[in-house]
Design goal:
By secondary structure, the chain is of the alpha+beta class. The protein folds into three domains: 19-189, no CATH class; 206-217 and 226-394, Sulfite Oxidase, Chain A, domain 2 (Alpha-Beta Complex), CATH 3.90.420.10; 405-522, Immunoglobulin-like (Sandwich). Helix content is 32%, strand content 20%. α2 crosses α4 and α5 (114-129) packs antiparallel against α6. It starts with 21 loop residues before the first helix and ends with a strand. The structure holds the ligand Nc1nc2c(c(=O)[nH]1)N[C@H]1C(S)=C(S)[C@@H](COP(=O)(O)O)O[C@H]1N2 and molybdenum atom (MO). The ligand Nc1nc2c(c(=O)[nH]1)N[C@H]1C(S)=C(S)[C@@H](COP(=O)(O)O)O[C@H]1N2 is lined by residues 233-238, 283, 285, 326, 328, 330, 357, 370-371, 373-376. This is Molybdopterin-dependent oxidoreductase.
């Protein structure tokens, strides 16, 4: 495969030239078996922690220096983690190619068929990576299968270079096998992992339906921006492969500075019928670019954290903070006061929480950066003294309230020749008072049209205790239409509900979130 273009003529099946090929031939067969092993595992378990590449990916992330990760988050965004995963995938294929090569060599040495030896070697390697039976067996069997395919008609386990054409046929058979198993795996595996049974799926409550309807009705008609309830909700995780949590065996523990540890099951939480509410909440990642797209809104169903703590008689008074822990070994620390306004969500837009967003239960902490909205939540540890969370150990300061932002995501040239600009504005629980647009680089400003605020959730209380007027922690859309004859600079800025204009000074996302006014050059 690495032959230069001019060398292809040498690929003729001249028997004399095959004598130095056994090594290359075995290497290709081993690599094919490696691809097949990974494909087989994927076919069996999909993109779950049982996939053989998942622990390798965790290893890659864990061994990447923090400075590189921070740089990658800021400059590469999602591409960084995608590249990291590709690297992990390549390493995993390499690992299985290596064990297959050892298997082929051993088989040749002892003159036994290669297929079972390669299969056993594959099983051993897979077992070292994941304890999952289906994944392990599929990886081993697939590697063995390809090694077997390669030996059919090709002189069994030995590299039979005396049979003209045999080595080439073996190589082709191995490659075809890798292609077939890898391809089948890709197809079979892509649907797996999200098939956790959820008996309550399918029916959306009338409350949810009406709230989603209101959100749709209040969304501005601007081409190129997300409606008030996002169609594509961003996702940010420390690991490339999300945990698969079994809801029946899942528990949420409250530990630390409490009289006694308390444990809740899923049904206990979802079954708090007096407390279950639907709330619109926006999340924004501290690591995103100023005009990035890691900011989205959903209608979440869950219970207020205080209801749960109070019902269980858990006294948290007098403590400073909490550490939330999760099934993916993520942990974040923040003030107890923030948790007291928090929400434990188990549905998103009327459907059970997707695995990617924290199934079965995640925390939503109003007004704070996304990172403390812990997914796959397993433990609330009450702390008497401050500690550092996952990202704070890496230099970030992302546990506080979000910065105010107005994004500029749409520039539309309308039929009548006018220009329409639009986007979203968000300031956490401070709310958005106004968005202003400048079409002359900041010299003069006009007020943009804002979407009506999203409605309050079913249980959201206002300052005076009665039902709130609008969602406490949700974004708004803005839109501005104007005429222009020459190229110009559009600048956008928001003022929060407390009357504070967002700072114009630009800062990058590290360590405490981006700031500044978004600007963009627009051609008429
Ligand atoms: N368990 C866990 N929770 C997590 C994370 C994580 O990696 N693991 N990432 C956090 C970050 S940095 C953000 S911005 C939000 C993103 O939530 P989303 O993926 O549902 O959009 O989840 C937070 N909660
Ligand atoms: Mo984040």
């Amino acid at each position: 495969m690495t032959d230069g273009p001019g060398e292809s003529a040498n690929r003729s099946d001249t028997p004399a030239e095959d004598s130095d090929r056994p090594l290359l031939e075995s290497a290709v067969v081993a690599a094919s078996a490696g691809v097949a092993a990974v494909g087989g595992s994927y076919a069996a378990v999909g993109f779950t922690p049982a996939f053989v590449a998942a622990p390798v990916s965790d290893f890659v992330v864990a061994s990447t220096p923090d400075a590189v990760i921070t740089w990658s988050i800021q400059t590469l965004g999602n591409l960084g983690s995608q590249l990291g995963f590709l690297l992990a995938l390549a390493l995993t294929v390499g690992l299985f190619a290596l064990t297959s090569a050892v298997g082929i060599a051993l088989a040749a040495r002892f003159e036994v068929p290669a297929s079972p030896v390669v299969a056993v070697a594959g099983v051993a390697a897979a077992l070292a990576l994941t304890g999952a039976a289906a994944s392990t067996l599929a990886a081993g069997a697939s590697a063995g299968l390809v090694a077997g395919l390669a030996s059919v008609g090709g002189g069994a386990n030995r590299s039979d270079s005396t049979v003209p054409g045999a080595p080439r046929r073996r190589v082709l058979q191995a490659l075809a096998g890798a292609f077939a198993v890898g391809g089948t795996g890709a197809v079979l595996g892509s649907g797996r992992g999200d098939e956790i049974p959820a008996p309550d799926d399918g029916s959306v409550s009338a409350d949810v339906e009406s709230l989603l309807g209101e959100a749709e009705g209040r969304s501005l008609d601007v081409e190129g921006i997300e409606p008030l309830v996002s169609e594509q909700f961003y996702q940010v995780d420390i690991n490339n492969v999300d945990p698969t949590v079994d809801r029946e065996n899942w528990t949420l523990r409250v530990t630390g500075a409490v009289e006694e540890d308390v444990e809740f099951g899923y049904d206990e939480i979802a079954g708090m019928s007096e407390s279950v509410e639907h709330r619109f909440v926006t999340l924004r990642c501290v690591g995103e670019g100023l005009n990035g797209k890691k900011m989205d809104t959903a209608l979440w169903t869950g219970v207020p954290v205080t209801d749960l703590l109070d019902a269980a008689g858990i006294d948290t008074s007098g403590n400073c903070c909490v550490m939330l822990r999760a099934a993916d070994d993520y942990f974040e620390e923040f003030p107890l006061s923030a948790l007291r306004n928090g929400f434990l969500a188990f549905e998103m837009n009327g459907r059970r929480l997707p695995r990617s967003h924290g199934y079965p239960v995640r925390a939503l902490i109003p007004g704070h950066w996304g990172e403390i909205n812990v997914k796959w939540l397993t433990e609330i540890e009450v702390l008497e003294r401050e500690a550092k969370g996952y990202w704070e150990k890496r230099g970030w300061h992302g546990t506080g309230p979000v910065n105010t932002v107005a994004k500029l995501h749409a520039v539309n040239h309308l039929d009548g020749g006018e220009i329409q600009v639009g986007g979203h504005a968000y300031a956490g629980t401070r709310g958005i008072r106004k968005v202003e647009v400048s079409t002359d680089g900041g010299a003069s400003w006009s007020e943009a049209t804002l979407s009506d605020p999203l409605p309050a959730g079913t249980g959201e209380r206002g300052p005076s205790g009665g039902r709130a007027e609008s969602a406490e922690d949700a974004w708004r859309q803005w839109e501005y239409t104007y005429e222009a004859a020459a190229p110009h600079e559009v600048v956008v800025r928001a003022t929060d509900g407390e009357g504070t204009l967002q700072p114009s000074e630009e800062s990058e996302s590290f360590p405490s979130g981006p700031t500044g006014w978004v600007s963009r050059r627009v051609e008429p």
